[in-house]
Specification:
Layout lengths: L23 H13 L7 E5 L6 H14 L3 E5 L5 H17 L1 H8 L3 H11 L11 H13 L5 E5 L7 H16 L4 E7 L1 H8 L5 H4 L2 E4 L5 H14 L3 E2 L1 H11 L3 H17 L4 E2 L1 H6 L1 H17 L4 H13 L6 E2 H8 L7 H9 L3 E2 L5 E4 L4 H7 L7
Parallel strand pairs: 1-4, 1-5, 2-3, 3-4, 6-7
Antiparallel strand pairs: 8-10, 9-10
The structure holds adenosine-5'-triphosphate and magnesium ion.
InterPro entries: AAA_16, P-loop_NTPase
Protein name: Orc1-like AAA ATPase domain-containing protein
Organism: Corynebacterium efficiens (strain DSM 44549 / YS-314 / AJ 12310 / JCM 11189 / NBRC 100395)
Length: 381
Amino acid sequence: MHPTRANPFRPTFGVSPTILAGRDSLLESFTLGLAEGPGSPFRALLISGARGMGKTVMLNEFEDAAAAQGWVKLRVYPDSSMLDTLTNTTLPEAIRDQTGPGDKRMLTGVSISGIGQITTAADPDHSHPTPTLISRLRELATLLRQRASGILITLDELQSTDINHLHELATAVQDLLRDDFDIALVAAGLPEGVERLLQHEGTTFLRRAERIHLGEVDHADSVAMFLETTTAGGRRIDRDAAELAAHISVGYPYSMQLTGSLAWARATLDKTDHITTRQVESVRDEVIRRMGMQVHEPSLHSVPDGELTILYAIAELSDNGEMVATGDIAALMKVKPNALSVQRRQLLRRGLLTVPKYGYLNFVLPYMREHLLANPQHRPL
Ligand SMILES: Nc1ncnc2c1ncn2[C@@H]1O[C@H](COP(=O)(O)OP(=O)(O)OP(=O)(O)O)[C@@H](O)[C@H]1O
Ligand SMILES: [Mg+2]
């Protein structure tokens, strides 16, 4: 009577949700920007957002939108060989993919030396210098231009990127844009890291990039996500239960997936295809514990004691998640308010705190307060 159904919720970082909540207008702007031409501001995009706010998912969505217009996606990973991999592996593969099935057949089994042959074929006396990032991008963009499509480069974890690599990549993209090639660069990272990178010399192009800050999903969009995802998975959820799930996950995409996933599991154990408020309510504590393990612990990992003390003070003073006056924090710590300014600034840069109103502070991530209060052993003495 009750078939086991696959859980449609995806509480896993970097994995796209079954139903994407509340990012329609952003996706629409991006899609239009691709079709618009090299003059569109959406050709250089910087996405920032707190951990778990859906940055990687947004990059995946942008890639899909670009692929739907016939664009080629190139992923860049922020490691020490970032540009080397792009220039000597990713780009040659993409170029080979564009050179038609006939050529492909010819090249099977020749692999690396075959790739070398493509680029030197028109240059029998090897008088040209070795291909560079720019020359290979141009080669690919020229092939794509014949089909009226372009190149989308995505870079995740922007905060870990070497500034020199970023500079070189941005320069290459800018170079192609200046010659009216269809190319777009989208990078995503944590707010603190993005700000830090932009303060460097040599990031002028990126400073002019379109900035997108991913924030919480609206309550209505969140409720719709619970309803639609549950239906997509083959079950029903009460409207009240979807409202409660949206309330528990406070518009934070990762906790939305967690709440949905756990409520789904509860329904499976209860052998029902109908999720009720009782089931959603019963997983609330587990959502908070999982948030602690998967989100809070990692984000507190490298926070020094001086800053941790402030976070604990806020957790203690905050009344049910309400913002806390900086003066009250200082009073609790028995210091003058201006003695906290350095740590306060650091915590804002880390994306752990925000200033909801002048003179006040609050946590960025939902349930951080609960996590700290539940783990007093990590409080510095
Ligand atoms: N718009 C959305 N609607 C529903 N779920 C979403 C949405 N965006 C992201 N998610 C879900 O939220 C979780 C986190 O998404 P993602 O990995 O993209 O976050 P992130 O910002 O890249 O995090 P990190 O900073 O740790 O890299 C995933 O489980 C994903 O499925
Ligand atoms: Mg990510």
